[in-house]
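Hi V.,

Quick status before I head out on leave. The structure for the redesign project is tokenized and pasted below; the design run finished overnight.
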């Protein structure tokens, strides 16, 4: 027979997830703030956010960037992704995912923190050029964060792009739980405010001159973490290869059940 303590350590069953309807909404940029040296905070407003965005952590939405005229959404409301991918590249608007960093239902505003990584990517370029009055078609919303209901300890890891989601997850953790956060960034200029009612231990790793996606620092640091007793859940968002390696490692070598690890390739 199992002891009571052992029973209490078991992850409780998740309630069945209701798959949310996804659709296209149109929004307008109402504010642009240089929130951190490498982060542009874009505030969007839309009457259509009402009932579409909800108050769950790690909600992400897909920006479909305008092709030419920044004031005109790039796609119609009945977007079909099969048709989208059949379009010739020259006619296909660029689409990228971003986390809802904050949602203010009273004013129908959403903040998204876009990491600037030079002028290589359409998303980074759009963020640098964004100004009030710009229009966006946005598809979604979706979420990937799915801890067991009785989770007591979170392991959260990622790079610059995972920070907005880590911040939202942390803000919604209950007091009395604990979170270990490990983030790999270029350098101290990338430090981003993280606050939580939970007990929080944060490690910042600097990759310095190493190219993002080539550094092993995050992998090594997660490998060195001591996993406590209790109900544990691991969530990661960052460079694809690193997330794939860490997801595999936590499941195969650290005893996490597949459902208790979410590690998503963000780029
Ligand atoms: C669920 C989800 C949520 C996300 N949330 C956010 C968010 O809140 N904020 C955010 O900024 N990003 C977020 N991302 C990541 C974002 O979608 C990608 O970084 C996206 O590729 C950026 O698009 P881009 O057009 O700027 O660059 P791309 O055209 O995709 O890439 C151009 C080049 O830049 C490289 N690159 C791309 N991103 C980075 C980076 N961050 N650092 C260094 N090199 C990079 C690529 O390897 C490529 O060589 C999220 C991704 C997912 C899947």
């Amino acid at each position: 027979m199992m002891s009571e303590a052992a029973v209490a350590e078991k992850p409780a069953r998740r309630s069945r997830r209701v798959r949310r309807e996804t659709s296209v909404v149109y929004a307008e940029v109402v504010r642009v703030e240089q929130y951190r040296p490498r982060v542009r905070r874009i505030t969007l407003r839309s009457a259509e956010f009402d009932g579409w965005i909800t108050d769950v952590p790690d909600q992400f939405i897909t920006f479909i960037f305008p092709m030419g005229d920044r004031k005109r959404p790039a796609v119609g409301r009945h977007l079909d992704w099969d048709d989208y991918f059949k379009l010739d590249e020259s006619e296909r608007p660029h689409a990228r995912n971003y986390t809802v960093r904050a949602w203010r239902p009273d004013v129908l505003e959403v903040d998204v923190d876009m990491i600037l990584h030079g002028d290589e990517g359409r998303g980074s370029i759009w963020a640098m050029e964004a100004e009030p009055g710009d229009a966006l078609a946005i598809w979604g919303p979706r979420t990937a964060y799915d801890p067991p209901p009785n989770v007591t300890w979170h392991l959260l890891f990622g790079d610059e792009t995972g920070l907005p989601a880590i911040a939202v997850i942390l803000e919604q953790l209950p007091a009395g739980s604990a979170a270990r956060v490990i983030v790999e960034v270029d350098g101290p200029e990338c430090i981003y405010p993280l606050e939580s009612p939970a007990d929080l231990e944060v490690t910042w790793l600097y990759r310095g001159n190493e190219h993002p996606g080539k550094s092993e620092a995050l992998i090594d640091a997660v490998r060195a973490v001591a996993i406590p007793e209790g109900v544990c859940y691991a969530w990661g968002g960052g460079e694809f290869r690193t997330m794939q390696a860490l997801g595999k490692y936590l499941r195969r070598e650290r005893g996490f059940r597949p459902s208790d690890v979410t590690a998503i390739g963000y780029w």
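Above is the designed sequence. The domain at 23-143 is CATH 2.40.30.10 (Elongation Factor Tu (Ef-tu); domain 3).

G. will cover questions while I'm gone.

Best,
W.
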